[in-house]
Amino acid sequence: MEENNLRGVKVNKSHLEALPLQDFRELMGEGAQVVDVRNPTSFCGGHIPGSLNIWQDGFAAFAGYFLNYEDPILLVDDGRGVDSVRRSLIRLGYDNMAGYLAGGFPHGTWRDLRFRNWMPSVSMS
User: Is the model more confident about 22 or about 80?
Assistant: First the structure.
């Protein structure tokens, strides 16, 4: 551990790959962890079923409570980029990053994932 702290650890994934919808869905079917890093309001407006919402600003503080180190991690964002999340994952010791949904969630083609149980959240106000 001391050696890693002094010299740093070898990182297998120095960048995250933008994945097309089909590849993203295949990895989901294989058991990947899907983390939506958009803000909670956007997540409540609609999200991929089974995804976990850990917003970018709180990612470093909360990811370790919910993510395991074995299954690949897929990220969903709003198109702003996931570099800060990638850095947080590396610092927390996750080297199982598989990539992120190309174009982010609101790009319009996410419905092509054809989830049978997708349902948008509805405001009660």
Answer: 22
**Among 74, 63, 69, 65, which Cα is nearest to 32's?**
74
Instruction: Return the percentage of the chain with pLDDT > 90, whole number.
Output: 49
Residue (of 86, 69, 68) closest to 77 by Cα position: 86
Sorted by sequence, the CB contacts under 8 Å of residue 109 that are 6+ apart come out as 21, 103
Paired sense of beta strands 52-53 and 97-101, if any? unpaired
Please report, as a single letter, which amino acid is at residue 53: N
Please return the burial class of 90, using the count of CB atoms within 10 Å of its CB with bins 0-12, 13-18 and 19+. middle
pLDDT exceeds 50 at position 108? no
